[in-house]
Automatic annotation (TrEMBL):
Protein name stated in the entry: AAA+ ATPase domain-containing protein
Organism: Ditylum brightwellii
Ranges of residues in domain AAA+ ATPase: 1-129
Transmembrane segments: none
One Pfam family of this chain: AAA
Taxonomic path: Eukaryota, Sar, Stramenopiles, Ochrophyta, Bacillariophyta
Molecular function terms from GO: ATP binding; ATP hydrolysis activity
Source domain of life: Eukaryota
């Protein structure tokens, strides 16, 4: 029978990453599709999703339906079209024998009872706490190479420091306190942290300078909105 995993929790907390990691561990391809890709009517969804599931069974691939909330919500007498979508999902799951991940932003308790009965494992994801945010900041920032130092002078070589194109490929040295400061100052999810670093690197290239705390703070404000408090340092 099918192995169906429901990954539920707020955005940017690691649901998609979980499916990607399991696919990598099993050395199998992962087919990712969002609910919006499948269509808006029951007939469109049945045709498109049926084709996806058939292909993935042929390829022995895992499937992730991202943002699957519309297929999971408990049915009601007033939402005929949405009820039809849930029925289509139930019918397709009944005959699917592969591994399927459903990603949802809603709590597990609000899932349609018939859908819930077909789910093998429900995994709930909490929002990132300060410690979790600090680790995400550290892991992603340290993907950017640190500025190389001259072994004699312990300073950045002039050929890099005086070359904006080269300088912008690196980051300054971030301390444990810096990561803690970022985690405490900004209540961001994992996706927002990633987007902040991507934008900060673009700003660094524009300025011809290494990635720094001040550039990161500007990027966070742009990504998360003006209401985010920027530390004064």
């Amino acid at each position: 029978g099918a192995s169906i995993f429901l990954l539920h929790g707020p955005p940017g907390c690691g649901k998609t990453l979980t499916a990607e990691a399991i696919a990598e561990l099993l050395r199998k391809p992962l087919y990712i599709v969002t609910a919006g890709d499948l269509g808006i009517t029951a007939s469109e969804v049945e045709k498109t999703l049926g084709s996806v599931l058939e292909l993935c069974q042929t390829w022995d691939a895992l499937v992730l339906i991202d943002e699957a909330d519309v297929f999971l919500e408990a049915r009601s007498s007033t939402e005929i079209q949405r009820n039809a979508l849930v029925c289509v999902m139930l019918r397709l799951l009944e005959y699917y024998s592969g591994c399927l991940f459903l990603s949802s932003n809603r709590a597990g308790k609000s899932i349609d009872a018939a859908i819930a009965s077909r789910i093998t494992v429900m995994l709930g994801y909490p929002s990132l706490n300060v410690d979790g945010r600090g680790k995400v900041w550290k892991n992603l920032i340290e993907l950017v190479p640190a500025q190389p130092l001259d072994p004699t002078t312990k300073e950045v070589p002039a050929r890099i420091a005086n070359n904006p194109r080269k300088a912008s490929k690196y980051r300054v040295n971030f301390t444990t306190e810096d990561y803690q400061s970022l985690a405490e100052a900004y209540q961001l999810n994992g996706r927002q942290i990633k987007n902040s670093i991507v934008l900060a690197r673009a700003l660094a290239r524009e300025r011809g300078s290494p990635l720094s705390m001040s550039i990161l703070q500007r990027a966070v404000t742009a990504v998360a909105g003006e209401d985010v408090e920027v530390p004064s340092n």
